[in-house]
Amino acid sequence: MKKIRLLLYVSIVALLTFPLAACSQSPTTIKVAEVTRSIFYAPQYVALEKGFFEDEGLDVELTTTWGGDKTMTTLLSDGADIALVGSETSIYVYARGASDPVINVAQLTQTDGTFLVAREEQPEFKWEDLNGSTFLGQRKGGMPQMVGEYVLKEQGIDPKEDLTLIQNVDFANIPNAFASGTGDYVQLFEPTASIFEREGKGHIVASFGEESGHVPYTVFMTKNSFLEENPEEMEKFTRAIYKAQQWVQDHSAGEIADVIQPYFEDTELDLIETVVDRYKSQGSYAEDPVLDKEEWSNLKPIMEEAGELPADVDHKTLVNTKIAEDVMK
Question: Where does the chain cross the membrane (predicted)?
Fold first, then answer.
């Protein structure tokens, strides 16, 4: 009788614990390659720190790959499942006849993130002041360089004729080159621009983001094959990003700075807050992950003006809005 009771007890325990074991599945690992580490990508770090990815059953492994070409190479070689990089890279890959094109899924930033920094203080700065100057620009073919040239042309400045344009400095070395004396003006991301201003190495005189309007500047993208094989994971990932975007919109620059500080340990908290406020004020952080047709259409003339548009690719060819639209419902 005791044996029967024992067997019944063991059976009941097994039945009760089996559903719990089945429900507590280990999270799915998603490898993400970001083009650079920047406060410009604050919503991504919010999603990580606030546990929005964990809530979706995802374990996100973030790697910084320092440059658009390196980021895309990492994605195409399966070193990452998702890349955070400019949309122009997906057009470059498509134009080369890729059998597995890269699809834009969730937009993170919607303006340029660079600022024009002058070596001398210019409280009455006008864009025409660049005429005859030496301008230290960004890498040829990248979004910062293309937007930079587009804005200059919109201001009546021919970057090839009206100033000396330097574009042969590696992305990571541009700040050091300017600090060492190269150029009268430089195009810089934050927080470097604000750090230079604090240290007296330069002065922010204009924002390329304010001048360029909305463009799909940085977007989470993945290979079409990964998207087809992992639709649920991509939906969960995009939902977490959307939660972070909403959180950023609803909280102050100071609160955002507190959350993302672990990703910028060498940057003072008040400086992070200043940068977040600057980006937030000019509408750089996308409010939702949808990359719409209008923004895609704004991208192509910028690339064309820079002589970097290899093909006129339709929005529907390289952009998936369904996932973003579904998670917003």
Answer: none
Tallying the residues shown for the chain, one arrives at: 329
Instruction: Identify whether the C-beta of residue 215 lies closer than 8 Å to the C-beta of residue 111.
Output: yes
Q: Which of 211, 210, 235, 115 is nearest to 156 (CA)?
A: 211
Q: Which amino acid is at 101?
A: P
For the chain, what is the domain count?
A: 2
The verdict on residue 145 lying in a domain is yes
16 within a domain of the structure (yes/no): no
**Based on the number of CB atoms within 10 Å of its own CB, is 50 exposed (0-12), middle (13-18) or buried (19 or more)?**
middle
> What is the residue type of 159?
P
220 and 321 share one domain = yes
Residue 20: CA count within 13 A, CB half-sphere? 5
Question: Measured at the alpha carbon of residue 37, what is the angle toward residues 55 and 205, in degrees to the nearest 5?
Answer: 125
Q: What tens digit of pLDDT does each residue of 115-166 get?
A: 999 999 999 999 999 999 999 999 888 899 999 999 999 999 999 999 999 9
Residue type present at position 322 = K
165-179 per-position pLDDT tens digit: 999 898 889 999 999
Nearest partner of 89 among 81, 74, 230, judged by Cα: 74
Distance of CA 153 to CAs 50, 175, 284, Å?
41, 24, 22
Cis ω before 191 (30° cut-off from 0): yes
